[in-house]
Amino acid sequence: MLLAALPSPATARVYGTEQASPFFVALRRRVGTLVGSEYRPGWRRRLRLSAWLLRQGVRAWIRDEDLTALRLPDASLDAVISLDVLEHVPDFRAALRECARVLRPGGVLVLTVPFYEDRVENEQIARLNADGSIEHAGEPEFHGDPISGGVVCFHHFGWALLDDMRAAGLREVQACRVQGVDVALPQGVWVIRAYR
């Protein structure tokens, strides 16, 4: 969906919310410029992950970025891609505003989240307190992560996410069900696409 939304993938400037992954390595070969990042890796982990990237043929130092405060210029990107990250961001609305800010007019945001198609509203299942502690609304939920082993989930998303994206300054927001045994998605996954 990302490549199809880009007028010229070979010259596109794209930001991905992951960097130390096979996905990043594969996408890097398909777009003009790909900038990725990880969230809060310590210097040892950054060194280890940068070494992993080098073994994959990618000469890049692991960037540390906060999706709610990106260090990227306004309107500087053709696309942002975020796969299963937004649910781990305490203030996901700020992250959506940041995505809209860094996209040029006509730029595209493609994201996946655990999407509850039977729910209208989003549900906050954890919150970050001012002192940095996390308060859970029920049983704590952690999702697997190849870097840290488990990351706290703050939100379950329903159809209200599309309204939140519009409120962040995005347009033509669309949730698409992608499914196909031939592409290893027999159960299907929701992919959400929006333009600035």
UniProtKB/TrEMBL annotation:
InterPro entries: Methyltransf_11, Methyltransf_Superfamily, SAM-dependent_MTases_sf. GO terms for biological process: methylation. GO terms for molecular function: methyltransferase activity. SUPFAM superfamilies: S-adenosyl-L-methionine-dependent methyltransferases. Keywords: Methyltransferase, Transferase. Signal peptide: none annotated. Residues 26-111 form the Methyltransferase type domain. Its EC number is 2.1.1.-. PANTHER family: METHYLTRANSFERASE, METHYLTRANSFERASE DOMAIN-CONTAINING PROTEIN. This is Class I SAM-dependent methyltransferase.
